[in-house]
What we know:
Blueprint: H1 2-7, H2 24-34, H3 42-46, H4 49-68, H5 72-95, H6 101-115, H7 117-120, H8 123-128, H9 134-149, H10 168-180, H11 189-209, H12 212-232, H13 237-262, H14 271-288
Amino acid sequence: MAEEQLAGSGSAVLDAxxxxxxxxxxxxxxxxxxxxxxxxxxWDLEQDFRSIAPYTIEEAYEVAxxxxxxxxxxxxxxxxxxxxxxxxxxxxxxEQGSFAFADVVDSICRKMVRRHPHVFGxxxxxxxTQLKGLWDRVKAEEAAAKSSGGxxxxxxxxxxxxxVGLPALSRAVKLQARAAKIGFDWPNVTPVLxxxxxxxxxxxxxxxDGLPVDVAEEFGDMLFVVANLARHLKLDxxxxxxxxxxxxxxxFRHVEQxxxxxxxxxxxxxxxxxxxxxxxxxxxxxxxx
Length: 289
């Protein structure tokens, strides 16, 4: 019923087997059909911004994973899934009269043009804006404009621009980078390493004391310093950890394959023997470099 109603608007019928490519307009129509009262999808009708947000984050990670694997076919699909999330949130906002997908597009286009006067301005503007820190300056002006028209009574922090919903490691790096803009930072990597050793010692002490709350706090402090170390080394801690996860997966798969070749289950094999197979995988990877 919903498909027939939408097809009557003058666009091609919604059919998975249709010959011509679908467009962003079709995707918006599909989402409208899924959210249509009575005729829509019961699951989609139950969702709200909060329930969909975890899927939005998950899809962004799957895009990053496809990029890491250099899988362009998968990247095309995952980008579509991420785009669906944008359309989904925009549709829910439109239902409550806040904004629509077209407003999202208009907003980001205006922001990109505003933040790139060195690209979209006239010749004189482009020359005048070839300066270090332009992006940060424009963002600061935008933040000032927001605060002047906002209702918040509290004093704004330099750190408020870092989204709370970021992955914890990424947020730690961004918080530290923001603080560093006003000189609140170690001068080089040496004191960061010293601080990491200090935090490890404090974690060990908390573990000896046996208080779970203290252990959790000290473990968090240690991870925060690890994120700071990554920043000083100019590394993305999320990317580094993803690479370590992939390495662990490859080597553990080798252990599993050796178990299968041997015809034994993991219960029948000592850890020391599995460690030998792990070292085989490690040596093979080094030889392939």
